[in-house]
Every structure is written in C-alpha cells, then in structure tokens.
C-alpha cells in the first residue's frame, strides 16, 4: 500500500523495457527469434529478480512478493506480445517532472534534478501506450498511439499522506519505432525514445473528484 503502488508500476515498466532491450540485443547478436524472445525478453525479470533476492537478505528492505509480481507482469507483457504478434502493439512508457514535494524530504525523494526525476513519485507517470493502426484501425497514422497513464500526488511519506490522491491520464502519443527510415542511427534513436511518453495535451482525472486539462504534460 506504499506510494499508491507507484513503485510497483515502476518495476513493471523497468522489466518491460529491459526485456525490449534484451530482445533487440539478442537479435542483433544473431540469435533466432525464439531465443531472443524467451531469453532476451526475460532480461528484466532476471536482473530485477536478482535485486529482489539481495533485498531479501537486507534488514533495511526485505523480499517483496508484489515487486516480483510486477517484474513478472512487465516481462509477460513483452514476451506475450512478441509470441502472439511478433510486434509490440502496446508499450509501457515513463514520464516525469519536478515537483515541490521533494524539497520537503530530499533524503527520500531526491535532492539533485536527476534524483528528483527518478525518486519523486509525485512527478512520475507510468503509461500504457497502444497503437490503433497495429490493431487494424488503418485510418490512424502508423505512428500515432493513444495512451492511458497512472500517477499519484501529495506523497511525502510512503503512507499516511492527508490530501494525497491518485491520478489517471488520457493523452495521444508517438510510436517512434513505427516511423519508417533507412537510417540505422535514427532507428536506434527511435527505439530509445519509445521508452518515454512524449509531451502532449493531456486530460487528468483525480481520485478526489478533480478534473484538469494540460496543454502539454510530461
């Protein structure tokens, strides 16, 4: 129940993206699709599972079954799509912005800009970004995605944050890897960019009943 489960969503995102990178690396190295999918696509689960094993032997943390469930879910999303479609029609993406909450507890939420972007869950959003064209909606541009995001705000501590709330987002997105190019450099850049939710006009719904529109949100 800590941090409105934002850390668990981060685990799922990390295992998905590491699996995506592992699959691409195995294919680049010459392995067949089956090995690349099962072994390369499981890199995130293996790596994060190793961290969880070490946490289980630490008095400061301890093993978390829910962390492992999130790691498994992220890997399953990648491997399942690769087996079923040989394509990633849905991507887990990340976005983050600076908030003032980190200033109130910099030892946990971060002090430098880089730490705040990574550790302050108040500014973090995890997105599920889907491509309508890949699902047969041919009227949609091949590069256009629609995305739904989850976040939370008002958190200084892991629990017991009066006035805090969940956030639900809807926004368009860009599937860079679906933009056709012959440039190997651009293909690599596009692959990396697909780990990030692109800034876009966004509709936000809050669990406390509030609704907000953002001209540009990241």
Write the layout of secondary structure elements.
Elements: H1 6-28, H2 33-38, H3 43-56, H4 65-85, E1 90-96, H5 101-104, H6 106-109, H7 113-119, E2 124-130, E3 144-153, E4 165-174, H8 184-193, E5 200-206, E6 211-217
Antiparallel strand pairs: 1-2, 2-3, 3-4, 4-5, 5-6
Helix pairs in contact: 1-3, 1-4, 3-4
Short description:
With 218 residues, the protein is of the alpha+beta class. It has eight helices and six strands, in the order H-H-H-H-E-H-H-H-E-E-E-H-E-E. It starts with 5 loop residues before the first helix and ends with a strand.
Number of strands: 6
Uncertain runs: none
CA radius of gyration: 18 Å
SS element count, helices: 8
Spell the H/E element sequence. Answer: HHHHEHHHEEEHEE
What does this structure look like?
A six-stranded antiparallel sheet has the order 1-2-3-4-5-6, covered by helices on one side. Helix content is 41%, strand content 22%. Helix 1 packs across helix 3 (43-56) and helix 1 (6-28) crosses helix 4 (65-85). It is built from eight helices and six strands; from the N terminus they run H-H-H-H-E-H-H-H-E-E-E-H-E-E. A hairpin with a 4-residue loop joins strand 5 (200-206) and strand 6. The chain has helices spanning 6-28, 33-38, 43-56, 65-85, 101-104, 106-109, 113-119, 184-193, and strands spanning 90-96, 124-130, 144-153, 165-174, 200-206, 211-217. The protein starts with 5 loop residues before the first helix and ends with a strand.
């Amino acid at each position: 129940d800590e941090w409105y489960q934002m850390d668990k969503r981060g685990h799922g995102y990390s295992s998905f993206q590491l699996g995506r990178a592992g699959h691409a690396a195995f294919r680049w190295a010459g392995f067949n699709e089956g090995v690349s999918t099962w072994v390369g696509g499981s890199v995130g689960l293996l790596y994060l599972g190793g961290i969880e094993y070490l946490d289980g032997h630490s008095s400061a943390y301890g093993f978390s079954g829910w962390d492992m469930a999130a790691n498994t879910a992220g890997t399953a999303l990648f491997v399942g799509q690769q087996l079923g479609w040989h394509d990633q029609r849905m991507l887990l993406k990340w976005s983050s912005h600076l908030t003032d909450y980190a200033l109130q507890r910099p030892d946990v939420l971060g002090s430098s800009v880089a730490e705040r972007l990574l550790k302050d869950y108040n500014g973090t959003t995890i997105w599920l970004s889907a491509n309508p064209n890949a699902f047969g909606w041919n009227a949609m541009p091949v590069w256009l995605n629609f995305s739904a995001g989850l976040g939370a705000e008002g958190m200084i501590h892991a629990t017991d944050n009066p006035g805090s709330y969940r956030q639900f987002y809807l926004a368009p997105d860009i599937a860079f890897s679906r933009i056709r190019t012959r440039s190997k450099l651009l293909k690599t850049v596009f692959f990396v960019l697909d780990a990030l939710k692109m800034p876009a006009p966004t509709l936000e719904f809050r669990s406390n009943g509030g609704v907000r529109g953002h001209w540009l949100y990241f």
